[in-house]
Amino acid sequence: MTNNKLNYLVLHCTATPEGRQVSKDDIIRWHTSPVNQGGRGWNRPGYADIIYLNGDLVNIIPFNTDDFVDQWEISNGVVGLNGNSRHIVYAGGMDRENKHPLDTRTKEQLATLEVYVKYTIKRHPKILVLGHNEAPNANGKACPSFNVGEWLRSIGVPEENIYRKADTEVKKESVASTATTTAPETNETDV
Ligand SMILES: [Zn+2]
Prior knowledge:
The protein is an alpha/beta fold. About 25% of the residues lie in helices and about 15% in strands.
């Protein structure tokens, strides 16, 4: 039995300075170019979708509407969670000097992200939404540079869709006790 249920929607930032455009092609290049050409050398990018500064929503890795993460849908956003997650990123997340994490979401990005989160919950009523920094393997990352739980509450997302740390621990235990194979997972790092 495999466990490739879509359990998590993980929010990210590109960790680029406020006001700087980042395109889908930038993400693909940064993540999949060989390491000796300045990329990370991954086989797949880290996010399924990106929200541009002007609020445009652009798909990077296609996915279908069911409750499972197929191999072809995987994005490498958080090591250990990718087989059960969808990853969405907004362009920004650092101050203009590129020194400190900052919530740089534009009015347009805020509007798009709210629609995106709420639509994803309508599609997948049991999904849990979290920030990269809340994931078990976040390794001290600030991404996405805002308090996701607080923001979700402020836009009226139901409590049952807001991730708490214990949620992954419970799910991991139940997976460990029942599954004989692990979720589809690439063993690359994260962003
Ligand atoms: Zn991230």
